[in-house]
Structure formats: structure tokens, C-alpha cells
Amino acid sequence: SGLVLKLAPKERVLINGAVIENGDRRSRLAIMTPNAHVLRLRDAIHPEDVNSPLRRVCYIAQLVLSGDADAGEARLQLLRGIEQLSQALTDADSRAQLAAATGAVRDGQHYQALKALRALLPREERLLAASRA
Q: Is pTM beyond 0.90 here?
């Protein structure tokens, strides 16, 4: 099976430290190597943008995917971070995404964890904006 990436034209992806750019057409890429470090660059969070609890947890998962952090060492940080997020994001949809992220981290599927966590970014943005108002 492996990880399947659907890439838009000219989209870039980081695979085991190498930046790969798609051609002029949409394409599908199957990553067959287990534990390969894969990160879509459009999903990447830059260090200066790590300015919220959810972005911090996403960034840790991203570091594992880019190969800049050890999965074993990051696991506890990710699970703790997700647990802390579950204290604030209590609606059913958020709980489902956090549960998916937890399961993915436990299974060593950091790409799936990041995907589940990123789905919560708009919700966190709204909550933070409302708390500032």
C-alpha cells in the first residue's frame, strides 16, 4: 500500500531530505518505503509561524516528517500536546480529529497525524480570534 500523494502541477514535496517538484500536470506518487520522511512543502509551517498550541504540535510532527526529529523522542511530546489540545477543543468533530491524530502517532504514521491536526487549524484560529475580541 504505502503513502499516496496527489500532487498539483509544480507542487513540491520533501522526501528523505530531497525537494522534489512535480511537473506541469497533476500526478500521483506512491511512497513504498516504510518510514520514509515525507512532507508536502505547501503544508510546512515555518518556525516563525509556530505561535499557537496547535501549530506547536503540528510543527513537532513536521520535524519528524522532515527527518529533523527522532520519531521516538517526538512521540511523547506529540501525545502530550494532543492531550492538552483536547482540553480546549471539546466539540465532537475536534475530538474525532484529535483521536485520529493520537492513533496515527501511536502507529508511527506522522503524516496522517499532521493531516488530522492541520484540519483543526481554522477552528483554532477562530477560537483565538474570539478570545482576543
A: no
